[in-house]
Specification:
Length: 614
């Protein structure tokens, strides 16, 4: 008989996680280096008992909110470029549901996180338990079923032996470049406590390496033929380039072949801003340079991108006749929008494509056009960022000062609101992989939590988190978490009086300003929050600055501090950096407002430019 260990299901689960390893930069490291957890009904007895026993091997960090701690795990995964994975564990009921939004972030952005939630009793003897949501027609359903819509892998353990098959499957999904995303496992309370004789072999140390699938040879040759006939090729570099570690290979490929290279939101930071092939960000929050080239390109080489509407300008950024080649580890993403799907790892595929192309290069005139358009864009940026005598600075000016004072390896983090567009355009990347803008799910509240996770991932650099006042008010408690844990971040709060960028969209489509800026909400009287004092109450060092001239010295002061520092500055709510592509949104077909009727007519005209059949 094979040797066995008698453990509770929770103890066995934790022991398995402790024995999973991976290789990063040639070094063997834990695949799961830590757990974010809030203990409560459903996990405070069994799972916490198992985690306490290994607290020096698998550290547990207490979050302030289940959503934010799962977002911290996602920020960690991004900073590690999907090579190591954090665990987020919650109680049942509201604790679990708080993590659903974070699961959506991970799912949309193809990022790994292992979510463990407490669950109700399988034996149903004490039903209904506290926090249990009952379905009258199906007693097997509870709140944990909500995760099915936003996870790549979902399971509920109803017998202690089941983790022997479930956990390897979860790890397989977390490490698969094609299916990567969140894995969720529900842990019923009575099953967590059950003891079972587990085979010792289940706990043998395992070293995992992320697979690199090679492209199909015939598809690769088709791609070569299309590229060799191209007169105006354009590369779109997505997040998959960074997760594959293909930054250097792609940078060399684009420069040698003379192909202009634009970046998506997830892809920004694969190249430095001044790389000779770089032409800026593309799409709705993109640059005039990249969007101008996209409109003329005859072949689009899309690498590691899912081609979301913010990249494609809702499919108006390209000509009707442009051909697409899509290199992607995920078949789902590669086969979108009539593209020639070349399914494979970005690093391996770019290398094989470079070899197969021989001496081919893009026409010199097209290469030079990319250089010229990007030069014009940089001159525009200099103008947008130049200080003026206006009493309230614009986002562009604030971003310019923060960028200028950031150290080369500092990691910029932002997410929803007006800042993604402004940093996409105005932030000039100094070193690869120093930029994180979560805009696949556009999740308000990601920023500060992700900063905590990113600080854990790399203590040798400082995350600089830029948030608007609306996002800060939505989720700020992990400032306290970073103070408690000693993981320093710098937070820049741009206070523009509410949800300014949504007010912009509301106005742009003919709507009156309503319920977005604080002054336009149903309030007794507008009130300005003192963000510096609020953050100070959570233990951060803080400073309120009143001008651009004060912002630079404040950032230098923050960089030399020994703990999390929050800087607040009032920012303009109405001035935005241009360069946007068109965006398809719903606009009322009829309205009493003439502005809305005009906007609807304009929207219909815009839809005429969308590519057919995509």
């Amino acid at each position: 008989m094979p040797a066995t260990l008698r453990l509770t299901m929770a103890q066995a689960l934790v022991r398995y996680l402790c024995n999973q390893f991976t290789v990063v930069e040639g070094a063997k490291v834990p695949l799961f280096p830590g757990v974010f957890a809030i203990f409560g009904h459903g996990n405070v007895t069994c799972l916490s008992e198992a985690l306490e026993a290994v607290k020096d091997t698998l550290p547990t960090w207490r979050g302030q909110n289940e959503q934010s701690m799962a977002l911290a795990a996602i920020g960690f995964a991004k900073a590690k470029r999907r090579r190591q994975i954090m665990v987020a564990a919650s109680s049942i009921g509201p604790g679990a549901l708080n993590m659903v939004t974070a699961a959506g972030v991970a799912h949309s952005n193809r990022l790994p996180v292992l979510l463990l939630s407490g669950d109700t009793f399988i034996n149903r003897r004490p039903d209904p338990v506290m926090q249990q949501v009952e379905h009258f027609g199906d007693p097997t359903i509870n709140v944990n079923d909500a995760f099915k819509a936003v996870t790549r892998y979902w399971d509920r353990i109803v017998h202690p032996e089941q983790i022997i098959s479930s956990l390897p499957q979860a790890v397989g999904v977390l490490l698969d470049p094609a299916d990567c995303g969140p894995a969720f496992i529900a842990l019923p309370q009575d099953v967590q406590e059950m003891a079972w004789d587990y085979p010792e072999a289940f706990f043998e140390p395992a070293v995992h390496k992320i697979p690199r699938p090679r492209p199909d040879r015939d598809r690769l040759q088709e791609a070569v033929k299309i590229l060799q006939q191209a007169k105006r090729p354009l590369i779109i570099s997505g997040g998959g380039v960074r997760y594959s570690g293909a930054e250097k290979a792609l940078a060399e490929f684009a420069a040698k072949r003379g192909i202009p290279l634009a970046e998506t939101i997830a892809g920004k930071g694969a190249l430095t801003h001044d790389h000779p092939a770089h032409v800026g960000p593309i799409g709705i929050v993109g640059s005039t340079s990249a969007n101008a080239l996209a409109s003329e390109a005859d072949v689009i080489l899309a690498i590691g991108t899912r081609l979301m509407d913010f990249t494609t300008g809702s499919w108006t950024a390209f000509s009707q006749t442009a051909k697409f080649i899509s290199i992607n580890a995920a078949r789902w993403d590669a086969t979108k929008h009539r593209a020639l799907a070349v399914v494979g790892d970005a690093l391996e595929t770019v290398g094989e494509l470079a070899d197969a192309l021989g001496d081919w290069t893009a026409p010199a005139a097209w290469t030079q056009k990319g250089v010229a358009e990007f030069a014009k864009w940089n001159a525009m940026l200099d103008g947008f960022q130049k200080p003026t005598n206006e009493p309230v600075p614009t986002y562009a000016q604030v971003v310019g000062v923060v960028n200028a004072n950031a150290r080369s390896r500092d990691l910029l983090i932002t997410a929803a609101g007006g800042l993604p567009g402004e940093v996409m355009k105005n932030w000039r990347v100094k070193e690869p992989n120093t930029f994180d803008c979560e805009f696949g799910f556009s999740c308000m509240g990601y920023e500060i939590a992700a900063g905590w996770g990113a600080a854990m991932a790399d203590p040798m650099r400082t995350p600089i988190v830029m948030v608007g006042d609306g996002t800060y008010m939505m989720m700020n408690s992990d400032i306290y978490s970073t103070v408690l844990s000693g993981h320093k971040i710098i937070v820049i709060v741009c206070d523009n009086g509410g949800y300014a960028v949504i007010n912009r969209l509301q106005n742009a489509k003919g709507g009156a300003s309503f319920n977005n800026l604080i002054k336009d909400c149903r309030v007794k009287e507008p009130f300005a929050v003192d963000f510096a004092k609020h953050a100070e109450a959570m233990g951060a060092l803080t400073r309120q600055v009143d001008s651009l001239a004060d912002l630079g010295p404040a950032i230098e002061w923050a960089q030399n501090n020994d703990r999390t520092t929050v800087i607040s500055i009032v920012s303009d709510a109405f001035t935005w950096t241009p360069g946007d592509a068109w965006w398809d949104v719903g606009v009322p077909a009829t309205s009493e407002r003439s502005e809305v009727r005009e906007a609807h007519a304009s929207q219909l005209d815009g839809r005429k430019r969308q590519r057919v059949g995509v």
